[in-house]
From TrEMBL:
Keyword Nucleus among record annotations: no
Family: Belongs to the DODA-type extradiol aromatic ring-opening dioxygenase family.
CDD domains tied to this protein: 45_DOPA_Dioxygenase
The protein's name: 4,5-DOPA dioxygenase extradiol
Cofactor(s) it depends on: Zn(2+)
Protein's organism: Pseudaminobacter salicylatoxidans
Amino acid sequence: MATMPTLFISHGGPSIVISDTPARHYLETVSSLVPRPKAIVIVSAHFETHGVTVVTDPKPEMIYDFRGFAPELYEMVYSAPGEPALAERVLELLEKAGLSPSRLGKRGYDHGTWTPMKLAFPEADIPIVQVSIDPARDACWHYALGRALAPLREEGVLLVGSGHVTHNLRAYFSVLRQGAEVDPALAGKVTAFTDWFAERFAASDLRALLDWKNSAPFPADNHPTDEHLMPIFFAYGAAGEQPKAERVHNSVDNGFFANDSYLFR
């Protein structure tokens, strides 16, 4: 069985599944970028717990964790099954790494999971196990979380971090709802931040990446809170030691909201 790559995706807002955007069209190609996985383990920025929690639910339902969007989004269903046996394997690996995981028997798919997976694997026939982030923990901890689950790549499992490479929602909704002009200075800060990540990944500069809050340009302007960036460190760690990073998508919405996606091998 071929060793699977790992993937970080910027999942966009819930409306990505009905919007005619480059980010949506990219997500529709994801299944062509990786071997067909036996199962998927996904870390979503919208699944926050104290420490790490693994969902063992065999039939996850839907979580419509958003308000004010198109009515049709609240009728969409992504029926991919859970995989309790894989969840137990994830728990075993996390326990072995000293991460003291918890299990959760019932939890649906939040939009950080179901919207990108609906676009990437629309048949909903690949089992999915959900793993949480801890917003109180840093990049090093989430990188270690990924390293703990790296053996699953040898077992045909696709490890996915679903977050956003930039996530300044206050600025985003100011532009979207109020018709404000995009601040060129903010757009420049977004470009500087995303290009810095691309350069550091290309250089395999783990030290700088894990110290992003001190090393990257304009961290607070791009992430007023950290949770949406943590899945990128999970995906990087899950790819093993010094993986090759490929920036497979980098469109921008409204002039500054970046949708970068990375494949790690």
